Backbone:
């Protein structure tokens, strides 16, 4: 620890050689995929700089100018021997890799070049042009599939957004009910914080059943099962609260959640939506998946300025102050005409962030008075 402490490393003494060193002019750079495993005493002596994942356009540029020439050289191919169309590169990024960086992308390009190099060794010296149609001949069938359409075809399913060491990703929540005594079942290898979010969502729905136009007795005579798919992967954190609420509301109201929407946000028992982390990564994940509208907490608004301009105009971002906003906007068949509680603000007149932003206010069930959008505050 004393090596990294600027107050002590001017007279650092090696424990083995017992020779003093002046390290005060040395800049130490450490890298990590996650901050959680770093001991607090060590982390306190560092300045943390978070590097976001690449967007698709950045991956294409890196592949075109660095990865493809590198793999040509490593496989003994003449420059330009393998011509990969832009559409084929995009298909590799979307259907053969799922990552924040470009390691897997480089491996797929290397696989493609190895196949061509083998043909060259066998006497086929013709240059290759790789298109979306011929790509499976080199890389095999696609490895990743879009799940949005299949998942969202029934009630009780909502799409959330998660933040992992590999970047943002979609997180599906499935809810079902069965005859029982009001028990709550939670599966999907969940951590304690996520379990508490599920309990908070269920409690809010039960305590506000009349306002949500749900039979107040349905949850007393039914058991509720909430499942997070990909059960082998541990999951934790409070940001799925909004998604769990949307899935519950969908199941109990009989209305599907919109398939073009993804959401994130922590909730309270009073229905207030609290800020969460990883907003930029989550929006990038939604964009990659073809989501058209993203719900985020109002207090995360200031972080939207970090969203790349390439995504402007392709996503609508809706700010949520209360769960009433989710109930009004997340379900299919709801009247989504802007009301007096919403103000559509052109982003071009405000900050350079995605194309349409709706500020919302909602009514608290206790007082019935409008609740304005909370002040901007970066989550801790």
Residues:
């Amino acid at each position: 620890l004393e090596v990294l402490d600027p107050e002590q490393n001017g007279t650092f003494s090696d424990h083995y050689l017992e020779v003093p060193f002046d390290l005060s002019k040395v800049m130490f750079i450490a890298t990590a995929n996650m901050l959680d495993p770093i001991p607090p005493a060590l982390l306190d002596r560092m300045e943390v700089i978070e590097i976001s994942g690449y967007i698709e356009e950045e991956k294409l540029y890196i592949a075109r100018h660095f990865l493809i020439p590198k793999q040509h050289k490593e496989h003994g191919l003449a420059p330009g021997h393998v011509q990969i169309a832009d559409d084929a590169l995009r298909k590799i990024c979307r259907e053969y890799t799922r990552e924040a960086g470009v390691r897997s992308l480089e491996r797929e390009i290397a696989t493609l070049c190895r196949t061509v190099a083998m043909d060259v060794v066998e006497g086929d010296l013709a240059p290759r042009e790789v298109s979306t149609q011929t790509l499976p001949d080199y890389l095999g069938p696609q490895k990743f599939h879009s799940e949005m359409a299949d998942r969202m075809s029934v009630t009780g399913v909502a799409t959330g957004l998660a933040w992992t060491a590999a970047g943002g990703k979609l997180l599906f929540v499935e809810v079902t009910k069965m005859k029982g005594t009001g028990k709550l079942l939670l599966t999907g290898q969940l951590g304690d914080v996520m379990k508490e979010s599920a309990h908070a969502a269920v409690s809010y729905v039960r305590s506000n059943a009349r306002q949500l136009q749900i039979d107040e007795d349905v949850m007393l005579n039914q058991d509720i099962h909430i499942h997070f798919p990909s059960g082998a992967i541990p999951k934790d954190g409070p940001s799925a609260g909004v998604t769990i609420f949307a899935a519950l509301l969908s199941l109990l109201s009989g209305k599907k959640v919109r398939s073009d929407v993804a959401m994130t946000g922590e909730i309270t028992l009073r229905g207030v939506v609290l800020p969460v982390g990883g907003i930029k990564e989550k929006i990038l994940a939604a964009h990659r998946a073809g989501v058209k509208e993203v719900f985020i907490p109002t207090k995360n608004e200031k972080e939207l300025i970090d969203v790349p301009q390439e995504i402007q105009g392709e996503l609508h971002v809706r700010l949520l102050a209360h769960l009433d906003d989710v109930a009004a906007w997340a379900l299919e068949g709801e009247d989504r005409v802007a009301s007096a509680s919403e103000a559509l603000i052109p982003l071009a007149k405000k900050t350079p962030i995605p194309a349409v932003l709706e500020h919302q206010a909602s009514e608290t069930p206790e007082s019935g008075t409008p609740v304005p959008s909370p002040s901007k505050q970066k989550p801790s």
Summary: Confidence is low (pLDDT under 50) at residues 336-380. DSSP finds ten helices and 17 strands in the chain. The two ends are 25 Å apart (CA to CA).
